Amino acid sequence: MRVVTAEEMKALERTAIEDYGIPGLVLMENAGRHVVEVVKQVLGDVRDKTVTVFIGKGNNGGDGLVVARHLLNMGAVVKLLALANIEEISGDAAINLEIWRKMEQKIYSLQHGDGINIVRLILMNTDLIVDAIYGTGFKGKIGEKAGRIIEVLNGSGKPIVAVDIPSGLEADSGRVNGPCIQADHTVAFGLPKLGLILEPGADYAGNLHVVDISIPSGLVEKDGPQRYLTTRELVKEWMPNRRSSAHKGDFGRVLVVAGSRGMTGAASLCGEAALRVGAGLVTVAVPETLHSIMEAKLTEVMTAPLPDSGNGKLVREAKQRIISLLEDKDVLAIGPGLSTDPEVVALVKELLPAVHVPCVLDADALNALAGDGETLRKVQAPVVVTPHPGEMARLTGTKIREIQHDRLVVAANAAAAWNVVVLLKGARTVVAAPKGAVFINPTGNPGMATAGSGDVLTGAVAALMAQGLEASRAAAAGAYIHGLAGDLAARRKGMIGLVAGDIAAALPEATMEIG
Ligand SMILES: NC(=O)C1=CN([C@@H]2O[C@H](COP(=O)(O)OP(=O)(O)OC[C@H]3O[C@@H](n4cnc5c(N)ncnc54)[C@H](O)[C@@H]3O)[C@@H](O)[C@H]2O)[C@H](O)CC1
Ligand SMILES: [K+]
């Protein structure tokens, strides 16, 4: 599903109105009806329930007026409060205001005074709040008075349904610069806005319902900026079919180069994950002094010893052995637990230009390239890098806060500069392809911020590349499946006690859920 900015959404709405002749009033009516459906999901029978609708002066408020009218017709008690100067309501919103007035219904203006007392009074008998104050027209900072009212609404304990966007949320970034409606449900019209998908916006949005308000589908799907929300349907479309006559070679052979003394778990988690996401054959190559430990740890995953320094860390001489192991492999996954020993750094830098199979670089393989992202361009095959914000900061020579301030832009710029797919981990993992496509991942939970979680993700991405998925799709699907496995595991074990092994163990269930 495409993800848009406020301006891009407005342009789609304008085209629908001006070029296709769909009256804005029709779009607004459709929008309002969908909000009513969600209100009914929350309240059940709305008859005699009290719904308080807060409107602003723009078309978001217009949607709110449509919601009020339909709920009234359904037998609900509806209170309508305007946070703006009613006289400033214009266009389609004014038409709906006129209808509301002709139905001899009241509208409380909060224009004068601080409005807090009237809001508190009305909320005492309210069963549900509809936030139709600001939508894609919101810019900058919420006004002081509106901010105080929003804080009262958030503290009311009443369910809140936000119209299009929680008021106070920046549609394009998901950032908030002050009070913002903490919605239980957000009904987004046409396409999800970026701010509803990125943190903290996704948190403020609550349950996101993306609804069709009859903007022509050809318009909605047409090629605009290639920003997508990774959905189950998209991942299902990308996953390879499994013919009954298939054999393990059909699903690719992965070589994992990972591990060092005290970090054998990273190698085994990565190898196990690659198998569990469907790779046909997986070999984990580790420093030779650790080889017997790995043989004991792993069953379905094969192992191979690599030259090391005797202290359980690879030496640059391992390059030749890795190149020969790669001769009958389809994908290389390198980095988990390798350590940042100078010999390992030298090995990674000398090995990469000699790699001719698609590869996933994670953890210490990325740390080996600190400040030297350009080396990534020397790999003779598609590359996926999977940095967390700290590794990304080291790779780009910047600070974590700069990485986190604009994750999409940082990932997209790095992808283009290094000609690789960048999977930037974090709340809402972002996948950026060199040619501009960006996928935002909706799955996962804070319980996954646990040692080894990234090793599992690396194995999942490698498995999908081995099964023939194009690099950016393998990264987006891998992030989706990894996050879904984490959600399934957290549902059973909670977030606090969740460990990476639980995520790995839930991978098959996650791939089953995708179908
Ligand atoms: N365009 C259409 O045909 C449809 C739009 N839909 C809904 O309309 C809103 C977008 O409406 P818009 O009139 O552009 O603005 P808003 O209602 O979001 O904002 C109201 C108004 O608020 C003012 N404003 C902006 N920022 C601030 C601020 N920081 N403080 C105070 N006031 C502010 C500004 O003047 C705005 O005009 C969209 O989200 C949909 O809900 C229909 O759903 C579909 C048809
Ligand atoms: K809103």
Protein architecture, described:
The protein has 515 residues and is an alpha/beta fold. The protein folds into two domains: 6-222, YjeF N-terminal domain (Rossmann fold, 3-Layer(aba) Sandwich), CATH 3.40.50.10260; 232-239 and 247-514, UDP-N-acetylmuramoyl-L-alanine:D-glutamate ligase (3-Layer(aba) Sandwich). It is built from 21 helices and 17 strands. It has a ten-stranded mixed sheet, with helices on both faces. It has a seven-stranded parallel sheet with strand order 3-2-1-4-5-6-7, sandwiched between helices. Strand 15 (421-424) and strand 16 form a beta hairpin. Helix 5 (116-124) packs parallel to helix 6 (144-154). The model has no long low-confidence stretch (mean pLDDT 95). It binds ligand LP7C6HRI and potassium ion. The site of potassium ion (K) has 11 residues, from strand 4 and strand 5. (6S)-NADPHX binds at residues 59-63, 135-141, 164, 266, 337, 388, 455. Keywords: ATP-binding, Isomerase, Lyase, Metal-binding, Multifunctional enzyme, NAD, NADP, Nucleotide-binding, Potassium. Its EC number is 4.2.1.136, 5.1.99.6. Residues 231-514 form the YjeF C-terminal domain. Pfam families: Carb_kinase, YjeF_N.
